[in-house]
Amino acid sequence: MISKNTICLWYDSDALDAATFYAETFPDSAVKAVHHAPGDYPSGKEGDVLTVEFTVMGIPCLGLNGGPAFKHSEAFSFQVATDDQAETDRLWNAIVGNGGQESECGWCRDKWGLSWQITPRILIEAISDPDPAAAKRAFNAMMEMRKIDVAAIEAALRG
């Protein structure tokens, strides 16, 4: 059954590779269906993989092999709330270590250009701490990081 609301992600020609990687990397993720083009289209031929239905952490997605016309940008990202440093490291390293690229403040891009925020829950809590001085210390610590360091955020909270 097709979901009422699905995120459509445009890929050049490797939506299936991306969906497979997400399914292997993130919990509650799976490749659901692969659909082949019933005829030639501007960026492919009849029989090529045209769309891939998949989920990322329970979110329904459709990967479209639409060709090189559009690229992903930081204007869209998946934000993944992690429980600890081990989970943060595992997901960050999976994305960056599979041809991805580090960015700032917990952001990284996978090899297909899709942006991810690998965000420990402690960071989310810290920057909204009721003590404005603690929140500012945690925020300032985060601004110096690429991958988030949970111990450093906890230390900043303590002062």
Features:
single chain; 159 residues; alpha/beta; 2,3-Dihydroxybiphenyl 1,2-Dioxygenase, domain 1; 2 domains; four-stranded mixed β-sheet; 28% strand
Would you write up a description of this structure?
The chain is an alpha/beta fold and 159 residues long. Helices cover 32% and strands 28% of the residues. The protein is built from five helices and eight strands. The chain has helices at residues 15-25, 85-97, 121-126, 132-143, 150-158, and strands at 7-11, 30-36, 49-56, 59-65, 77-82, 101-102, 107-109, 115-120. A hairpin with a 4-residue loop joins strand 6 and strand 7 (107-109).
Following the backbone from N to C, one meets helices and strands in this order, namely EHEEEEHEEEHHH
Helix percent band: 25-40%
Secondary structure tally, helices: 5
Q: Kindly report the average pLDDT value.
A: 97
- Oligomeric composition of the shown chains: single chain
The shape is: elongated
